[in-house]
Every structure is written in structure tokens, then in C-alpha cells.
Amino acid sequence: MKKRILAVVLAATMALGLTACGGGAAAGGSSASKGGNIKVGIINNDPNESGYRTANDKDLKATFSTENGYDASFAYSLKNDEQIAAAQKFIQDGVDYLLLSAADTSGWDSVLKDAQDAGIQVILFDRTIDADPSLYAASIVSDMDKEGETAVNWLAGQNLAEYNVIHIQGVMGSAAQKGRSGALDAKVAAESNWNIVTQQTAEWNAETAQQIVQSVIDAGTPFNVIYAENDDMAKGAVAALDAANISHGVGKDVIVMGFDCNKWALEELLKQNWNYDGQCNPFQSSYIDKVIKTLESGGSIGEKTIIMDEKGFDASTITQADVDQYGI
Amino acid sequence: MSTISTKPKSQGGFAGKLLKNQIFIPIAAMLLLLLFNLIVDPSFFKITMGLNSDGNPVLSGYLITILNNGSELAILAIGMTLVTAASGGQDISVGAAIAIAGSTLLRVLCGTNTRPDVLRTPVFVAFIVCCLVAMAFGAFNGALVAIFKIQPMVATLILYTAGRSIAAWINNNELPIISDPKFAYYGGFIPGIPVPTPFFIAVACVIVITLVLKFTNLGLYTQAVGINESSSRLNGLNPIFIKWLTFVVLGLCVAVAALIKVSRLSSINYSVIAKDIEMDAILAVALGGNALGGGKFNMAASIIGAFVIQMLTTTLFKFNVPSDALPAYKAVVVIVLVVISAPVFRDTMSGLAKKLGAAKNKGVA
Predict the structure, then answer these.
(1) Topology, domain A23-141+285-297
(2) DSSP per residue over B121-172, as a string?
């Protein structure tokens, strides 16, 4: 009896999960396929995952619309196997292009081979995969190492006599963490006046970041830079500074640096409460659009891996227009 | 431990009683951590009075940080202890439920405008709504467990999986930010009072649950159901209702914790708010020496257990443990603490001690 109920509930959850995914697909694919439209199947991570993903999804939906000559279907999942299943469905539906932000780097070879056999072009965005480059037409990604370098170069340009950095890391091993930590670690190793006061992971969590900074303040160790690997953690760090009456921002005691360019974070820059915010560009759709247009007109793509432009905003130069355009 | 318990039980007196008392375990763990900090760096105990950036007096120091950040965990430990005692299982959807409750709170406060200059409703009203929603989700979990007899961990897995998406959906996936400084009081400081507000909220919850356990039969009935469901039914209790009720009480605890969490930053991040807090809450119950299979419980031990976990976290931050090694350190300490507090281990140890004592006595004779 117990087992049967359990089975029913599990089946129900699975059905719920399926409808959740199906709902997304239906919403995008509702427009009837017209003759001239390019059919694209877009496989993305769950838009609820983060502000980055929400902005990414909105951008894709805006570009791949019927008005722009596309007939787009969407599928969302944070799980690789569900994404692969969605890819197989898109291949059966006979889409022209398969756009993919893979949940996991491995396991894509066979399904991409199926796509190739069916004459479907695959374009990777946001995340790369471990597969032979011949299996996809282009890969549009952020260069996380470059993001870190841009930020660290900006910090070096501040010409402080001494850099005592509180380094708050993201989830260890994630691409964003590795790139953003790598640049700072290299700089600290190379320069004698750069010191790490503490280096801890807050796992993208604002509140953990607050506790880490609180701990440094309680210990009474001097510091003058907070290098947080995303905006949420920078916000948590600032909350700890405010509680201890330590001034932060342009021309103040502590330099605050964040990443991701959330709209509210850029507003903090505009108010000069923070000093720097590095962009992690979620707007890949214009790049994808360009690739598809090139392929459609029979052209070829020079370099398969396309690295997007990413900015770093300085509180002393940011404008309201930047906030509106780049805030996610 | 062994030196004390080698004494014959009858002469054990104070020490023996102390050892047998369940609350001894979390207190011993706490003293151990305090002792470690005292030896390695006594600045751990330093508390200073300063001003925050608004010019209000605030206390700061590691001990204050522990009381401040351990509050939510202590509040959750109350509900988790009851759920564990009655159902013999744990609710793993607490973190996701906090996301839902927090999202509801912000939704009621902000309406559709995510950056309100003035709050649309009083915080009190929003909190009532938040409580009702959290209790409804608790009731849902409770119904699955009590009526449909699903394993609590499996039943709450549903909300654990779906909760954060529901939370995002409540606010249309927008991120509301509240600029009204009054809202930040609940997770920060009330002007003029240097002790963090979350600690007061936790104390209030502890007082309420103490009174409830003292003046109602909730504690007795919960334990009766947990120890033997059918015999408690034969004695006129309704085990289904009692189990269901404990999940609703946990829902209430979730709502209070959500208020503090959301207020701390006057905002919410659906995917990371209160992440993995359910594990810490379950750990608090285990550390309190409560049997995770249900039955008898000691509320005070769980609450102290919650603060011990926060003390451990803060200590690890203080000693700058490298990020990649942090979970490993925490795991080692947790394993040691939980094994020591497990009833089986304590029984074995006292049995061993008795045998040793007997052997010694023989030797002397």
C-alpha cells in the first residue's frame, strides 16, 4: 500500500515536472510555422536560476520572435538528461537550428551527431561542451578569465599604496569562480603590496558573504578592498560594512567590487556606494542572430568560438544610460 | 568522560546525573568549541560597542555574530524537533519554504512595483499573510506524511524540488528591493538598541514554545505518537492530527525565519536564500541528542544545538579555513559531535565504563 502511494506521488511529481517543461515549450512554439520562418529550437537552463539567466531568456525571446522571421521553441532544464531529451525532440520536429546552453559539459556527442545527420546546425551559447568542434557551427561564450583580468587591471589602476583584499568567492569550481579568482590570485602572487586578508567561498550567497566580512571586522584586521565574485555577495559585504560604520565607495575607505551588472548593483555604482562592477554578458542573441544570418546567406564563420565583448563599469564614469542598457 | 563514569552509578551523584542528561551533549560541544577558541585566540570573546553607518549604537564581536546569525536556525530547530519527534522523519523542504514565505512577504509589501518608495501594506499584515502561506505549505507536507503515510523525507522532497521555482513565480521572477529602512529592523538593529533584533525574535519564539510545552499537552502527545503510534491511538489520541499539527508549527517557524532572512538584506534571491538550512536544522536536532527516529525530545538541547552549529561556522570563518577545505572541516567536526551525541554511542560507552569499573573493583579485591 505504502509503496503504491509512493509510486503514485512520484509519478505525479514527474508529470508535474514534464508539464512545467512542456509549458515553456508551448509558450514559445505557439506561433504557427509560416513558410519563410527559420525554425530554431532553444535549449536553456531554468530562467529562475539567476538574474543572469532571466535576462538571457528575455533577450533570446525578444530576438527570436516571429517579427524577426523566426519560429522558436524553448525548452528549459537544469538537468543534462532532460536537455538531451529536449534536443532529440527538436531534432524530430525538424528544426533548422539548435541553440544550446548545456547544463553539463559531457554526454552530448551522440545527440549532436544525430542533429548533424539530420542537417541541423548547432550553435552553443553561454557554455561550451566537451565535444568535437565539427559537431557544432559556433560557440558564443563569455571569457571568465578575461572578466577577472579586466577587474584586476581596473583595481591595479587605482594605484593604492597597499592592497588588502577580502576575496569572496562563488561556488568553488564553477567557471565564473575559476576565472574571477584566477586573475586576482595571479596578481597577488606577483605583486608584493597585494595581500589577501581572507579568501572564502560564500557560494553566491549574500548572507554568507556578510558573515565572512563580519568575521574580518570582528578580528580587527585592516582591509581596503572587497572583491566579491557576484553582486549579491558584494551586497552582503556592504551590509556588514554598514553595521560597523566603515565607509565604502568612491573616495572612501573601502573599495567594493562586484560582478554580473544587476540593475540594482549598477544603481549602487551610480550612487557611488560601490566602485566597480564587471559584466558577464547575457545578451548572446544578437551574436547568434548574426551567425544564423551568415549561415543562411551561405557564408562561413571564421572562428568557431566567438567571445563576447564584456565591460567593466567604474562608479566615477557610469551613467544612467549604462544602467538602463546593461543592467539585468 | 570515562573517569567520571567509572564511579558506580549509585554514587555518581551530580556528575552522573549530568552525563545522563540529554542537554549535556550540546552544552559539552559548545564548551569544547569555546575552549578551543579561548586557547587559540581569546579575541573571540571580545565584544565592542560601536556605531553603525546610521549613527546608531550596535554591539559587535564574534559572540554577537553567533547570536545574530544563529537565530533563524534556532527558530527552525524548534519546529524540526517537533516534526522529528512526532513523525520519526525530517522535513527537507525548509529552505525552499523560506524562499516561498519570503517571496510572499515581499509580494504583499511591494505589490507589483518591485522598487516601492513606500510599503503598500504594514509589515505586520504582510507577515500574517506570510505565516498563513507557510503554514499552508506545512499543512500540505503534514497531510502527505500523516494521512498518506509517505516517508517525511520523500513527501517533503516535492516542495524541496519545486519550492524555489514557486517562490520565483510568486514575484514574476522579479527581484523586489525594499528601500524603507524600517523593514531592515527585523534582521538588523532597532535604532537605540545595540543587540541584534533576530536574537530578540529567537528569544520570543523560545519563550512561546516553552509556555506551549508547559501548559499544553503538545509535548506529551507528540512524544506519545512518536514512541508508539498505535498505542497512542488506543489511548484516545489522534496521531494523524498530531503529526499534521507539528508540520503546521514548523510552517510557522519557517515564516518567522523568512521574515528575518528577507529583512537582513531587504531583498531576496530565490535560488540561494536559506540554502541548505534544512541540513543545519536537522543537524541541530541530532546534535541536541534527540533520536532522529522519533519519540522523546528535548527542546532546549535542540536550540542550543542550533547555536553550536552557528558557532562552528563562525569559528571556521574566523580561522580562515581555505574555501575548498571548509566543507571537509565542518564534516569532520559534525561527525564527531553527532556520533558522541548518538544514544547508541552513549549507551555503549557507559556500558563499557561500567565493565571497566567492575574489572577494576575485582582487581582491587
Answers:
(1) Rossmann fold (3.40.50)
(2) S-HHHHHHHHHHHHHHHHHHHHHHHHTS---HHHHHHHHHHHHHHHHHHHTT
